[in-house]
C-alpha cells in the first residue's frame, strides 16, 4: 500500500517497469537461474510508483531496503490525530432525526457541507468561520475535503435559496407533526448589526441598545421536548405583537392543524387573541397586570385567593384559582395567582424606589427650579404643588395610590382557551422557559450574538444553518436528561462536548486511522444515550479515508 503524503527521490539501484502508462518501481532482491530456459531472472519487490521523472511515492516495503534514504513528507490535509467523539455523535443525530436525508434531497452533496458547518458550530461553540479550516483539520468531515471560510461565504450567499429553506422547514414540520394538539412556545429576540447590506436591519426596541439597527428572530419550539419547529426572521422595527399573525399563517402552511401557542405578555392583544380563535388554535398567554380586567379580578377575588389555604398550589409555591370572564367578546378562562414571597420582594423594591424618588424631589424643592413638565414620572406617587411661576415648591406622598400599588403586588394572570386547572395552566406556562433557554443557547452556545454577515441573503442562510444547529444541540441536551439527574454539572452540553472531544484516533504507517485510547466510563455513558459504543466508534473510524 502506498504511503500517503510522502515522496522520495528514486534510488538509482531500482528498476522501473511501466504498465498502462504508470511507472512502477521495483527493488532487485536476488536472482534465480531457470534451468529449463537456461537463463537467469531477477527477483523483484514492488516498493512504489513514479510521480515524475525523479520522484516516487514509496509503499510500506521501501524502508526495508532504503532505511537511510531521506523521505520528504508533505503536510497532510487532515492531521494524523483526529478528535472524533463529538463529530460522530452529531452525525448520529443527523441520521437518527433524518435531517441528513432531507438536506441531501434538497441540496445534494452540499448537504454534507452544511452538516460539517453545523458540527463545527456545535463542537467549537462558535459561528465565526475565519478559522474553520484550521479547526476541521483535527476533526473528521462528511464532505471528504476541508473547505475554508471563503467557500462557506459563497455557500451562504449563493447556494442556499429561500425556496430551499422553505422546503426544509415543510419537511421538518411534517416529520414532527402529530394528530394530537401540541403546544409550542413562541417568542422572539433581536440582534444588533452594523452591516449596511442587510435590508431587514432597522431601528426598533432592542433588548440591548447599542445605538445600532437590529433585526428580529422568532422561534416556535415544541413545549414537550424543546425541539425547534420553525422560525421567522423579520424587520427590526416590527414589534413582537404584530408579527404573530404571520407566524400563525406559517404554522398552517407547515401542516399544523392542531396547535397550542404559549406566549408571554408581550403578545396579548385583542387582534392576536381573535386571530388565534379564528385559526382554531389553543393558547396560553400571560396577561398584563395593568389591564382593567386584571384589576377587576383582584378587587373581586384577591382577598380570597390570598387568605384561603384551599387555593394553595404546593408544587409552585403560590395561591391560585380560575375564573371565567368575558375577554375580547368571548368567555375566557382566566387563572389568577398570588405569590406572597414575590409580593414581599416587590414591596421592598417598590418602597426603595419611592424613597429614592422622594430624595430627588426634595432636592428639586430646595433649588426651586423644577417645572411641571420635568415632574411627569412622579405625578402618580406624589401630590405636587407649584408656585404661581410654575416651579415645584412642595409635595406629599399619594398614600391612596401607593396602597393600591402594594395591594396589586404578587399577583399575575394567565389566560387559556382550553378548560384546565390553575395548577395545570401554570405548570405548562412555566415550562415556557425552554424557548428562553433556546435563545441563550443560540447566543452563547454557538456565539450567534453577532451574525457577522453583510448581505440579506447571507443572513437568511446563516440563520437557517444555525436553526439546524439548534435542533441538533437540543437533541444532544435532551438525550442526556437521565445523566443530568445523577450529575447535573458534569452532563451539560459544554461538559459533554469537552468529554467527547477527548475520543481520538491516530493514523498508522499505512494511512489507516485507529482509535487511540480506551473509552472512559464517562464517555461510554454519554455514547450510550445515543445507542453508540466502542464497536460503533471503531466501525466508523474504519470508514475514514482521508
Automatic annotation (TrEMBL):
It comes from the Bacteria. It comes from Holdemanella biformis. Residues 187-470 form the Transposase IS4-like domain. One of its GO terms (biological process) is DNA transposition. InterPro entries: RNaseH-like_sf, Transposase_11. This is Transposase IS4-like domain-containing protein. GO terms for molecular function: DNA binding; transposase activity. PANTHER family: PTHR34614, TRANSPOSASE IS4-LIKE DOMAIN-CONTAINING PROTEIN (PTHR34614:SF2).
Amino acid at each position: 500500500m502506498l504511503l500517503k503524503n510522502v515522496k522520495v527521490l528514486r534510488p538509482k539501484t531500482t528498476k522501473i517497469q511501466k504498465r498502462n502508462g504508470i511507472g512502477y518501481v521495483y527493488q532487485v532482491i536476488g536472482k534465480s537461474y531457470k534451468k529449463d530456459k537456461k537463463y537467469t531472472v531477477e527477483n523483484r519487490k514492488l516498493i512504489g510508483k513514479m510521480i515524475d521523472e525523479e520522484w516516487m511515492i514509496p509503499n510500506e516495503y521501501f524502508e526495508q531496503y532504503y532505511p537511510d534514504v531521506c523521505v520528504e513528507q508533505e503536510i497532510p490535509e487532515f492531521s494524523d490525530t483526529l478528535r472524533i467523539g463529538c463529530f460522530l455523535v452529531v452525525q448520529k443525530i443527523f441520521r437518527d432525526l433524518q435531517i441528513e436525508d432531507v438536506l441531501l434531497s434538497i441540496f445534494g452533496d452540499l448537504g454534507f457541507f452544511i452538516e460539517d458547518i453545523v458540527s463545527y458550530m456545535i463542537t467549537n461553540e462558535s459561528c465565526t468561520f475565519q478559522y474553520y479550516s484550521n479547526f476541521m483539520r483535527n476533526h473528521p468531515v462528511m464532505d471528504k475535503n476541508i473547505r475554508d471560510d471563503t467557500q462557506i461565504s459563497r455557500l451562504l450567499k449563493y447556494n442556499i435559496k429561500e425556496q430551499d429553506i422553505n422546503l426544509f422547514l415543510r419537511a421538518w414540520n411534517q416529520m414532527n407533526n402529530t394528530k394530537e394538539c401540541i403546544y409550542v412556545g413562541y417568542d422572539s429576540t433581536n440582534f444588533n448589526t452594523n452591516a449596511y447590506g442587510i435590508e431587514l436591519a432597522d431601528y426598533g426596541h432592542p433588548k440591548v441598545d447599542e445605538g445600532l439597527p437590529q433585526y428580529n428572530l422568532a422561534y416556535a419550539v415544541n413545549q414537550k421536548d424543546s425541539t425547534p419547529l420553525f422560525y421567522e426572521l423579520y424587520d427590526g422595527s416590527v414589534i413582537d405583537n404584530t408579527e404573530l399573525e404571520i407566524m400563525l399563517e406559517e404554522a398552517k402552511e407547515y401542516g399544523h392543524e392542531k396547535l397550542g401557542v404559549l406566549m408571554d405578555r408581550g403578545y396579548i392583544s385583542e387582534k392576536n387573541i381573535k386571530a388565534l380563535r379564528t385559526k382554531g388554535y389553543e393558547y396560553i398567554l400571560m396577561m398584563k397586570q395593568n389591564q382593567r380586567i386584571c384589576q377587576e379580578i383582584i378587587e373581586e377575588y384577591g382577598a380570597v385567593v390570598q387568605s384561603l389555604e384551599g387555593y394553595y398550589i404546593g408544587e409552585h409555591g403560590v395561591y391560585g384559582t380560575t375564573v371565567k370572564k368575558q375577554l375580547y367578546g368571548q368567555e375566557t378562562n382566566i387563572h389568577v395567582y398570588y405569590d406572597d414571597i414575590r409580593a414581599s420582594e416587590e414591596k421592598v423594591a417598590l418602597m426603595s424606589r419611592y424613597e429614592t424618588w422622594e430624595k430627588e424631589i426634595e432636592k428639586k424643592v430646595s433649588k426651586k427650579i423644577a417645572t411641571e413638565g420635568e415632574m411627569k414620572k412622579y405625578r402618580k406617587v406624589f401630590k405636587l404643588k407649584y408656585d404661581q411661576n410654575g416651579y415645584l415648591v412642595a409635595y406629599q406622598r399619594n398614600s391612596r395610590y401607593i396602597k393600591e400599588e402594594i395591594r396589586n403586588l404578587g399577583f399575575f394572570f394567565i389566560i387559556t382557551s382550553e378548560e384546565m386547572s390553575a395548577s395545570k395552566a401554570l405548570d405548562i406556562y412555566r415550562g415556557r422557559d425552554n424557548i428562553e433557554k433556546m435563545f441563550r443557547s443560540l447566543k452563547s452556545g454557538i456565539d450567534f450574538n453577532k451574525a457577522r454577515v453583510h448581505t440579506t441573503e447571507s443572513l437568511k442562510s446563516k440563520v437557517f444553518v444555525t436553526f439546524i444547529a439548534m435542533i441538533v444541540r437540543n437533541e444532544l441536551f435532551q438525550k442526556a436528561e437521565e445523566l443530568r439527574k445523577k450529575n447535573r454539572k458534569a452532563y451539560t452540553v459544554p461538559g459533554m462536548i469537552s468529554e467527547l472531544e477527548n475520543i481520538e484516533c491516530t493514523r498508522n504507517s499505512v494511512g489507516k486511522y485507529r482509535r487511540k485510547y480506551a473509552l472512559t466510563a464517562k464517555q461510554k455513558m454519554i455514547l450510550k444515550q445515543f445507542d453508540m459504543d466502542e464497536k460503533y466508534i471503531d466501525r466508523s473510524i474504519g470508514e475514514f479515508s482521508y
